[in-house]
Structures
1.
Amino acid sequence: MSRNTFGSLKTIEYIGPRPQKPKKNFFGGWVILVIALAMASLFGRPLLASLRSEQVVGTEAAADLTIEELSESNAAGDKLAIAALSLTKSSKDSSAVVCSADLISKSYRLALGLDLKELLNEDMSNAFAQYPQLWYERGPNKSVDSNRVPNIHRFFHRSSEDFSQSEPLIGDVIFWTLPDGNAHAAIIVPGPGVHAKEKWIVHHWQNGVVWENKLKDFTMVLGRYRFGH
């Protein structure tokens, strides 16, 4: 009795048609590629534009053009925006802004002729207990009070209406809390060039005054005001 090489295992014979290789569908592949490119173009451009919008910072040349356009208006908000934008160009001057509260004070003096330092000191003298007791002061300290954002915020809160729930306007002053817990402030201005219809901000950041598309970044807004308008 014969045995095959593999002992008890026997070869199984396949009976049926010979397997065919699948045909390549070049047309289908090109259609998928075209659709993919179309989708990328349709949805990628708005996303790219959005990312660029978030990353753009206004330049000095753009500030000059925006100031020139705003100068045709007599609106208080536009005047405040002009003043704020002008301060983005003087960060190296001896009169440079030293903090966000100083930015607000100087913008109001340049734009509307209002001395927030004097107004704040007068209000604090009349109602010192209504102001934040964060610095162990026994009374108003005219030399530093106007450079403390919580004091400027309380003055705006006491002297004007809070518009936080309404559409932001050019010249609005906005206060918010930073992730580190510190209070911060900015003035709302138009964006540069093609972003002119957007609402940007001018604020003091990292030792200088900057013009940025950061208005939508605020998550802990303390208030938005239109004092002096």
2.
Amino acid sequence: MTDGVLVRGLTKRFRAVHALAGIDLDVERGEIVALLGPNGAGKSTLMRILATTVLPDGGSARVGGYDVVTQSLAARRSFGLALGDERSWYWRLNGRQNLEFFAALYGLSRREAHGRVAELLAEVGLEDAADRRFDGYSTGMRMRLSLARAILPAPPVLLLDEPTRSLDPVAAVAFRQRIAGLGRARNMAILYTTHDLHEASAIASRVVVLAAGRVAARLPGGTAPAALEQALLDAVGR
């Protein structure tokens, strides 16, 4: 049984809309799976189920080896989550204080939190801005702080929901490179949703295309953006 992400026959319906209609998906430790699809394809619903904030109607999903429904607390401890529109920060605190607050929520002692936070700030390139107030951070810096918080408990699984959508192209490239490095160094299973075909091509070990709540295509990492675009067009045209 994988301690990454394992999804089998997952379904979710919102009234007459089948958001997910029998999804199968695997993400192993050490790989990055990019999830592509048009709006309404089911990407956000899948991520919310994996993050234990939405219950599925059928099928199963496991994160870190734990069922997201029957073992939701253990599943939550097994993943880190970073969102492209993350807002749950204390804007008057600096970056270090924000991370130390969340470290306390994870049960780290003050001494443990101090060391762990210093390590993570260096890892995401924010050590020089650690004592700057959060409201003075650029969008890219805020996203890097979100990444640091996501890996604070050293989870085996990392869920990233369109993390670069508000970043400029240069910051987005730097963020992707950082994710790829972290994935290798920490041997994490990373599920990465994006609308950016170049990003999916550059970062993914595998690409999964969703359409109308179903897996429409599975493509290898490094597939050219033009081929990914065609797969999306084919999926939408079904």
3.
Amino acid sequence: MEGRDIGTVVFPNADVKIYLDASAEERAKRRLKQNEEKGIETSYEEVLQNIIDRDKRDSSREIAPLKQAEDAIYVDTTNFTIEEVVEKIIEIIEKRR
């Protein structure tokens, strides 16, 4: 399961927790590409600012703030393809078995 508070609020006792992250700039590039594929016109700057604003809102909210669970494994996906992210997740899960 994936989500911004899954490891800290929804499933705090999960056997495996992975905190996926990427730079705001990389996430903006990815979102811009998704938007273009959907025919949504936005600028890189607008997408980047939206991501920065959302991160700030989510990490500073009073209830269920965005944060890495203490027992989660941190994975920076900035320079990963989706296939590499999947491989890394599988590797982490297999090590926990």
